[in-house]
Amino acid sequence: MDIKLELIGVPVTDIDRAKTFYEQVGFHTDHDHRVSDDIRFVQMTPPGSACSIAFGKGITEMAPGSLDNMQVVVADIEAAHADLTGRGVPVSEIDDQPWGSFVYFADPDGNRWAVQQTTPRAK
Asked: Structure pTM?
């Protein structure tokens, strides 16, 4: 039996600010629907990913900013760092570890993300 991770809820305070930020990171907006006065559902997907994030009103009971260590994977951490920096996303310097190389960023609410190149980069 296949089990595929498809959607992760991200707790945010300001839906439009979060949508603008994730567009800046490069995520594609799949859905933005006001279902009712109590529910607005925004779904966004990173380029090349089969898993999306969702945020909005009535989506999760987690506290905004409480999501920690969401991780995405790239083939080239230097290219990812340059791309994010070029888009104006505040990212860390590249962090080289024996198990891979990383850059980190947080959304406006403080939800934290890691971008990983799974093989250590050549130095």
From this structure: 0.93
